[in-house]
Write a structure and sequence with these properties.
The structure is a homodimer. Chain A is an alpha/beta fold and about 300 residues long. Chain A has helices spanning about 25-35, 50-60, 125-130, 145-150, 155-160, 170-175, 180-190, 230-245, 255-275, 290-300, and strands at about 1-5, 10-15, 15-25, 40-45, 65-70, 75-80, 90-95, 115-120, 140, 165-170, 195-200, 205-210, 215. In chain A, the strands form two sheets. A nine-stranded mixed sheet of chain A has the order 5-4-1-8-9-10-11-12-13, with helices on both faces. A four-stranded mixed sheet of chain A has the order 3-2-6-7. In chain A, a hairpin with a 6-residue loop joins β6 (about 75-80) and β7. In chain A, α8 (about 230-245) packs antiparallel against α9. At the A-B interface, α7, β13, α9 and α10 of A face α7, β13, α9 and α10 of B.
């Protein structure tokens, strides 16, 4: 699967500690998470300061970095601080740096990939990437944020009209649809093009919507949340990574409901592991066996 | 099952409308909800203003009113207004009236009942009711609120030490345990006596905790929430009513995990129906078939 988005450095403060600079960015988290299910191919840009050890971490997870462009300048930097309960965060610094001129170009070897995840970047750029794909896309979708929903609405609507799925959080779903009630919000968003919608609810889990049914997954209850940064992106990576790894073809009409449900659970598992350590730390040791073990726990605490 | 608590009149304003005076009170909602699974017996007090039509509604649902004392004075009255998203409410009026001197006395015919639910009243009174039971209690538990947790803590701890289960919302669980994290909060509360804890999370569902496992139920997604008043009490009524109806004996060690899980789902179903109309209105038409149909929906949108 191809993942387009940011590769960045983050400064993060939570009630459990503070890290001034560590590997981050949506594409980083999505790809690391998806790497347990399939081979992700990153399309992103970094500056001359991007460290060898960070390349190595991504390579060790088998991620294809042919589309990770390195250009003069500094890597995107973001810093933020979380509230005491970690349900809110305030941005302290956003330095776009080389990301300001990011114009994703797909290496030829990426263009026939059947799975495309468009991380949260300008909707016009997301559309441009979609147009570069010249194979048979089985599944294309992605993420967006309040900024694009508010100030680039028409552009965003043109973009998601071409998507199979949209993956956003509850406040974004409400903003995009103009409906507070999630059932009504989902109905309106499914009218915008995507046949599949995933609404993330933070600690309360996620809901997958199709025209005729929905599926609700609770959030995993961690004993300690060290750092929620990247949890939503890890959800996306687990969700899409699982579907890509299974070779799911939603277009063919043979969409297996159960595979979509399992993808939501794997997304939830990956989001939960992400929070157990600062930044991407957990992915240095996480194993597929641990993922499958927690998937089993989800079954245990939801079955009746 | 015996239900002790308030029978009241409520004034409620939500974004969907306003009712100046309607039947309410925790014991009312608990008993109406439980009446679909077992025969509830109410222990409560009302004033001379308690209307014949309200007696009739309770009687039509088969509720035993031998313990519904009628005394000189006016019935407990509460009025409140909900926020636009209905996640918060402000109390406008609380007139305790005859409820101020409520000292629950069980009719002889109630004392050997094996199931006792103690609604949210003074912990000392809850203990007094427990002491009046002289049969073999299979299951005793109940509810409390922030006021008793904050100002009557020692009294409350003595009370719940005698209970099999405690049923409270997430903010109350955090206050009672002094832990923000729900796993840690649950561990501490299970150390206080009850072997079973249910934490209600409003629209996000509920979690049942036992020492070695937990079960998470999502909240049902309604298209329209007309009035959330009583939803938590209807959850309690469905939960306890189902266990009583099934004749579950948690004490004997033969506690069937699956029955507890099903009880949480029936509680969730009853809470969701409660919100569909103002006050107790939905219970005028609700059928057991509708309850079973929604139970099936819960299975559909949680199975994977």
């Amino acid at each position: 699967m191809v993942v387009v988005g940011s590769v960045a450095y983050d400064g993060v403060e939570t009630p459990h500690g503070k890290v001034d600079r560590m590997l981050g960015g949506a594409a980083t988290y999505i790809a690391l998470s998806a790497s347990y299910f399939t081979q992700p191919k990153i399309v992103a840009v970094v500056g001359e300061d991007f460290a060898a050890e960070d390349y190595e971490l991504l390579q060790r997870r088998g991620i294809d970095l042919a589309g990770l462009e390195r250009v003069p300048g500094k890597t995107f930097f973001w810093a933020g601080v979380y509230s005491a309960d970690m349900n809110d965060r305030a941005t302290l610094t956003t330095e776009l740096n080389v990301f300001a001129d990011f114009n994703p170009k797909l290496p030829p070897s990426f263009k026939e990939c059947p799975y495309l995840f468009l991380g949260n970047i300008q909707p016009e750029l997301q559309r441009g990437v979609r147009a570069q794909m010249n194979g048979t896309l089985r599944l294309v979708g992605g993420d967006t944020m309040n900024y694009w929903i508010g100030d680039f609405r028409e552009d965003l609507l043109k973009t998601i009209a071409q998507w199979d799925f949209l993956l956003i959080n509850d406040s974004e779903a409400r903003m995009l649809s103009g409906e507070h009630n999630l059932r009504k919000a989902a109905d309106k968003i499914l009218d915008m093009g995507p046949h599949t919608l995933v609404i993330k609810r933070g600690e309360y889990g996620a809901i997958l919507w199709r025209r005729d049914w929905h599926f609700m997954a609770p959030g995993y209850l961690l004993e300690d949340v060290f750092d929620p940064t990247g949890a939503g992106d890890c959800f996306a990576g687990g969700f899409m990574g699982y579907l890509a790894g299974q070779g799911i073809d939603l277009k063919s009409g043979g969409a297996d409901q159960n595979e979509l449900r399992r993808a939501v659970i794997f997304g939830s598992v990956m989001g939960s592991y992400c929070c157990e350590k600062f930044g991407v730390e957990r992915f240095r040791t996480l194993t597929r066996a641990e993922i499958d073990q927690r998937y089993g726990e989800f079954r245990q605490f939801t079955a009746f």
